Amino acid sequence: MPEDAGAPRRQARGRARIEQILLAAAAVFGEVGYEAATTNAIAARAGISPGSLYQFFANKDEVGRALAEAYAERLATLELLGGLTPENLDRVLDDALARIVGFSIEHPGFKALFARTDMPPSMRAAVAPAHDAIEARVREAIAAIMPDADDRRIATMATVILSMVKGLMPLIVAEADAPQRRLLVIELHRGIVAYVSSARGDVA
């Protein structure tokens, strides 16, 4: 059977269309939230018909899952909390928060899929791998500076820290005034450092 010379071109067009849809979905999710978003709105933002969208995704949940997977892959490239020690806590945490804020601003749909605690049941499984990866990184960082803490204490602390980040991140990202945004990040940083320092004192 002769090889289809046009197949690679069609595949490239398909990948480009998927990326177009995901970029549109990120914008729509970021503006109106996941629940209020519709496939019609995503298609309109992408400049295509709903029928064209359905050639690649059966429904909004499939779009959301694909976007969550794309975010998870990009998050994996971020260096967060590596080499943390009690002595460099301020610097490493400041760098990690700056990277997360930058990522959230660059990817407007991120907060709609990740920076919340009431994720719709249909999306929990989709975002779980990225959540788990971030939580594992936070646990590793805590264990590095609190080697005497048991697993339950470390897990609880990771949950508290991530909840602090999730709680403030939407406000930080939505803040248009750069100095005010930086102040919010500073207060988040201060809260995490105070919490970790207090916990280290309890374990010591």
What does this entry look like structurally?
This protein has helices at 7-32, 39-46, 50-54, 60-75, 89-106, 110-113, 121-145, 151-174, 178-203. It has 204 residues and is an all-alpha fold. It folds into 2 domains: 7-64, Arc Repressor Mutant, subunit A (Orthogonal Bundle), CATH 1.10.10; 72-203, Tetracycline Repressor, domain 2, CATH 1.10.357. Helix 1 crosses helix 2 (39-46), helix 4 runs parallel beside helix 7 and helix 5 (89-106) crosses helix 9. It is elongated. The mean pLDDT is 86.
Radius of gyration: 20 Å
Please report the number of helical segments.
Answer: 9
The assigned CATH architecture of the largest domain is: Orthogonal Bundle
Q: Roughly what is the average pLDDT, rounded to an integer? A: 86
Please tell me what the overall shape is.
elongated
Q: What helical percentage do the residues reach?
A: over 70%
Number of strands: 0
CATH class membership of the largest domain: Mainly Alpha
Q: N-to-C SSE series?
A: HHHHHHHHH
Biggest beta sheet summary = none
Question: How many structural domains in the coordinates?
Answer: 2
Distance, first to last CA: 72 Å
Structural class: mainly alpha
Strand percentage lies at: under 5%
Q: Which residue ranges are poorly predicted, with pLDDT under 50 across at least 5 consecutive positions?
A: none
| CATH topology category name of the largest domain | Tetracycline Repressor, domain 2
